[in-house]
Specification:
The chain is an all-alpha fold. It has one domain. It is 71% helix and 0% strand. Helix 3 crosses helix 4. It starts with a helix and ends in a 10-residue tail after the last helix.
Length: 84
Amino acid sequence: MNDKTIITKFLSREFPDEHPTIYIYVCGHKRSEKTAIEKVMLLTKQIFCPPFTEFFIYDVVLDYLNDKKDSYKKGLIKVKSFYG
């Protein structure tokens, strides 16, 4: 198991499809995307930053969120709105 897989598994458990942050990233605009990235980065850096660089973690987080957005656009996942 490589480093990226470990972080991705953490992200998938901490931020599943139903999480409001995923909804904000997938359905929001550019400013919402930035807010979602910052929220995910805050938690992930606290856990993984001493052994890994912040740039590496940022790349993994961005890949994870973009994968969620692509899956949503293809209809493979459903995100849950926190409004209703």
